[in-house]
Amino acid sequence: MSKWLEGRVVGQKRWTERLCSLQVAAPLGPFAAGQFTKLALDVGGERIARPYSLVNPPGSEPQEFYYNVVLAGPLSPRLAALGAGEPVFVAPNAAGFLVLAEVPDAENLWLISTGTGLGPFLSILRTETPWQRFKRVTLVHATRTAAEQVYHELLKSVGAARGEQFSRVAFVSREASAGALAGRVPAAIRDGRLERVAQAELSAERSHAMLCGNPAMVADVTAALVERGMRKHRRRAPGHISVETYW
Ligand SMILES: Cc1cc2nc3c(=O)[nH]c(=O)nc-3n(C[C@H](O)[C@H](O)[C@H](O)COP(=O)(O)OP(=O)(O)OC[C@H]3O[C@@H](n4cnc5c(N)ncnc54)[C@H](O)[C@@H]3O)c2cc1C
Ligand SMILES: NC(=O)c1ccc[n+]([C@@H]2O[C@H](COP(=O)([O-])OP(=O)(O)OC[C@H]3O[C@@H](n4cnc5c(N)ncnc54)[C@H](OP(=O)(O)O)[C@@H]3O)[C@@H](O)[C@H]2O)c1
């Protein structure tokens, strides 16, 4: 079997100058919500490939990817230039451990993201599993600006369908924004603001946190959770924190 599927772009949404969602038709193998596959383009005779989380839930079409245009990057500006009908290579299988099958039972599930790290949680939230397994599911999304708080309509529909089982906390750090907390997530964990606003407990006894996005955020939130007695989850040593970093 060929190492790459030949996908076709079916849509490209530009949320801001630097944030896009790419929709691709490609016969990807079965995947679990939270996993990533690879996208690739041929540039100057070389195939440039990078991992991207799947935003759509398993079993749906097209495949969707939410990504940041890194101006000096070799691949992401080229993905952003693609229009409907153009080809893009897709790795045939997805991978990754930021999935609910790797998460031990708990009362409260916390999905904590910065920037494009929101993507895998959008897939997880559109499956039945979190709603069957957890009493409360809290999505935290931290961005620099309010314009980067994307997928609002999708998240509103998750909220409408799931009622009080779901809460959503936005952080906007570099401008004032109504309805969003100011500052960063670790400070709001330490001073209790995050739990107050989410009305859910963040503790080793009752919670599991999945973290995705900026590696500095992942490290700093992990440290704030460790101060609360939570620890990283490993298959052989079950814990309360699962992570994926994007760079
Ligand atoms: C498991 C995994 C899943 C990923 N999923 C996504 C995803 O769903 N969406 C996404 O946008 N990126 C994702 N990434 C990052 C992605 O693979 C690329 O690195 C990114 O799109 C930039 O590609 P590039 O070739 O343009 O530049 P690269 O040479 O790959 O990166 C250059 C620099 O850009 C910065 N950077 C990389 N990714 C980001 C980002 N997302 N936001 C801001 N700065 C970044 C880093 O400083 C990096 O060193 C993922 C990475 C990993 C490891
Ligand atoms: N977004 C832009 O307009 C922009 C422009 C130029 C370049 N970039 C580059 O793109 C990369 C990613 O940018 P991004 O906007 O997607 O995301 P980002 O820099 O990861 O910021 C997203 C959110 O994460 C917060 N954050 C950053 N470090 C953190 C930490 N250690 N602990 C907790 N929270 C933390 C930020 O707060 P703070 O605001 O307090 O940092 C912000 O609220 C960066 O490396 C940046 O250099 C982004």
How would you describe this protein?
It is built from seven helices and eleven strands. It is globular, with a radius of gyration of 18 Å. It is α/β, with parallel strands linked by helices and 247 residues long. The model has no long low-confidence stretch (mean pLDDT 97). Helices cover 21% and strands 31% of the residues. A six-stranded antiparallel sheet has the order 4-3-6-1-2-5. A five-stranded parallel sheet has the order 9-8-7-10-11, sandwiched between helices. The structure holds flavin-adenine dinucleotide (FAD) and NADP nicotinamide-adenine-dinucleotide phosphate. The site of NADP nicotinamide-adenine-dinucleotide phosphate has 17 residues, from strand 8, helix 5 and helix 7.
Number of strands: 11
Give me the strand/helix succession. Answer: EEEEEHEEHHEHEHHEHE
Bound small molecules, which ones?
A: flavin-adenine dinucleotide, NADP nicotinamide-adenine-dinucleotide phosphate
Mean residue pLDDT: 97
Q: Pairing-aware structural class of the strands and helices?
A: alpha/beta
The portion of residues forming beta strands comes to 25-35%
- Unreliable stretches (pLDDT < 50, length at least 5) are none
> How are strands sequenced across the largest beta sheet?
4-3-6-1-2-5
| General shape | globular
Residues in helix, %: 10-25%
Summarize the main sheet: 6 strands, antiparallel
Concise synopsis of the structure shown:
With 247 residues, this protein is of the alpha/beta class. Helices cover 21% and strands 31% of the residues.
Question: What topology emerges from the helices and strands here?
Answer:
Elements (H helix, E strand, L loop, with lengths): L4 E10 L4 E7 L10 E8 L2 E8 L9 E6 L7 H5 L6 E4 L17 E7 L4 H7 L3 H5 L2 E8 L8 H11 L3 E7 L12 H6 L2 H6 L8 E7 L1 H12 L14 E5 L2
Parallel strand pairs: 7-8, 7-10, 8-9, 10-11
Antiparallel strand pairs: 1-2, 1-6, 2-5, 3-4, 3-6
The structure holds flavin-adenine dinucleotide (FAD) and NADP nicotinamide-adenine-dinucleotide phosphate.
